[in-house]
Amino acid sequence: MPFRFAPWIAAALATAAVSACATLQPVQTAEKMIGSPQSSVRDTFGAPTETYQLADGKTRWIYSKQPLGYEVYAADFDAAGRLAGFRQMLTEQEIYQARPGLWTKHDVAERFGMPREPIQYYPLMKREAWSYRMYVSGYQPAHFSAYFDDRGMLDRTMIIVDAIGGDSRDHSK
Predict the structure, then answer these.
(1) Among 36, 53, 123, 144, which residue carries the largest CB count within 10 Å?
(2) Taking the alpha carbons of 67, 139, 156, 102 in that order, is the dihedral positive or negative?
(3) Rounded to whole angstroms, what are the CA distances from 37 to 21, 50, 55, 99, 160?
(4) What is the Cα–Cα distance from 33 to 83, expressed in whole angstroms?
(5) Which of 93, 104, 92 lies closest to 147, judged by CA?
(6) Global pTM exceeds 0.85
(7) 170 compared with 162, residue with greater pLDDT
(8) Could you tell me the end-to-end alpha-carbon distance of the chain, in angstroms, rounded to an integer?
(9) How distant, in Å, are the alpha carbons of 70, 73, 114, 150, 163 from that of 139?
(10) How far apart (Å, rounded) are the C-alpha atoms in residues 148 and 69?
(11) Residue 6 has pLDDT above 60, yes or no
(12) Does a cis peptide bond (omega within 30 degrees of 0) precede residue 26?
């Protein structure tokens, strides 16, 4: 008699495979889901860390891997609640769209999520700083910081490359 998987084992393996793809390749997984309802996105990626109602009638779900991870993903849904886009937000391309003097804390949060690193205040500059871990130029660890004035307006952004690299490999060999 040939060996057969019980139906629940096959279902568990399929769920594990989808979950692994969503964890290892979230953007590629989500691109295949464009047009899917919010419930399918939640089933695949879990509950978002934040949600925002955007000005154009869309809804954005933020999936933050901060403070120890280097990614913040945004799942954008159209007015009907269907997935319209999914992308990694902590890229140089996304950061360069920030508009000092025009954006507020809310605009930065909608784009990158709330910071998971402690918020810093620099009294001599009179600036509050939000910091996010990211990669630049491939896999070079860096920090992206957004500085706000006392009115809550974005004053400047800065990307600082982590010269040490943040990994524990021995590069002397």
Answers:
(1) 144
(2) negative
(3) 19, 18, 20, 32, 38
(4) 7
(5) 104
(6) no
(7) 162
(8) 55
(9) 10, 17, 23, 34, 12
(10) 24
(11) no
(12) no
Neighbours of 56 (CB within 10 A): 8
Sign of the CA dihedral with 160 first, then 22, 56, and 110 last: negative
Beta strands 50-53 and 154-161: pairing type? unpaired
Average pLDDT score over the chain: 87
DSSP characters for the chain?
------HHHHHHHHHHHHHHHHHH-HHHHHHTTTT-BHHHHHHHH-S-SEEEE-TTS-EEEEEE-TTTSS-EEEEEE-TTSBEEEEEE--SHHHHTT--TTT-BHHHHHHHH-S-SSPPEEETTTTEEEEEEEEEETTTEEEEEEEEE-TTSBEEEEEEEE-TT-S----TT-
Give per-residue pLDDT as tens, 94-124: 999 999 999 999 999 999 999 999 999 999 9
